[in-house]
Amino acid sequence: MAARLVVLVSGAGSNLQALLDACADPGYGATVVAVGADRPDVEGLARGARAGAETFVVRVGDFPDRAAWDAALTEQVAKYEPDLVISAGFLKLVGPAFLAAFGGRYLNTHNALLPAFPGIHGPRDALAYGVKLAGATLFLVDEGVDTGAIIAQVAVPVLDDDTEDTLSERIKQAERPQLVEYVGRMVREGWTVTGRKVTVP
Ligand code: GRF
């Protein structure tokens, strides 16, 4: 049976789209059962709906505090009984309730070569620092900001005339196939974690 994925987004959802496209092949071994967001009206939600996934929105502002939001998000995601939860451009840090439920199977793709340039401006920070290689990191989310155990990384060159937009786009072109490849391998073959070392067969 296909593994159940819940994907969390905050924006365009091009990584989500890559997963949706991969899941169209039964041999891939996964299906996106739901797409969730922390805000309404984002293209990622529309992409999910077009592909037949359920969609939901859990807004921080609708709750008295962050813990209540975290509990509500956890409850909502749990309803779909996911095998993996994937943050693909989801611009919120989840809290203890979410990690208690999905820790160890909550993945994030980040547009920098961690541990360099965590946070929401990876490509901008990489350009400002002057690095010559940038890239994307897929990791298991822990309680820190982009600190979890690394599953996979892919590097791309930084070119002399890059802007934040051109570098971000080059990173995304490498990031999407990496995400698709590793999610597929993980659902089909499993994975092991030893300390900080993640091994995917
Ligand atoms: C990705 O590059 C991700 O690493 C970063 O935001 C981007 C999201 O892109 N956090 P998209 O919404 O999947 O197109």
Automatic annotation (TrEMBL):
Annotated catalysed reactions: N(1)-(5-phospho-beta-D-ribosyl)glycinamide + (6R)-10-formyltetrahydrofolate = N(2)-formyl-N(1)-(5-phospho-beta-D-ribosyl)glycinamide + (6S)-5,6,7,8-tetrahydrofolate + H(+)
List of residues binding N(1)-(5-phospho-beta-D-ribosyl)glycinamide: 13-15
Binding site for (6R)-10-formyltetrahydrofolate: 66, 91-94, 108
Gene3D superfamilies: Formyl transferase, N-terminal domain
GO molecular function, one term: phosphoribosylglycinamide formyltransferase activity
InterPro entries tied to this protein: Formyl_transf_N, Formyl_transf_N_sf, GART, GART_AS
CDD domains membership: FMT_core_GART (cd08645)
Family per similarity comment: Belongs to the GART family.
Name of the featured protein: Phosphoribosylglycinamide formyltransferase
Organism field: Actinocatenispora sera
Origin organism lineage: Bacteria, Bacillati, Actinomycetota, Actinomycetes, Micromonosporales
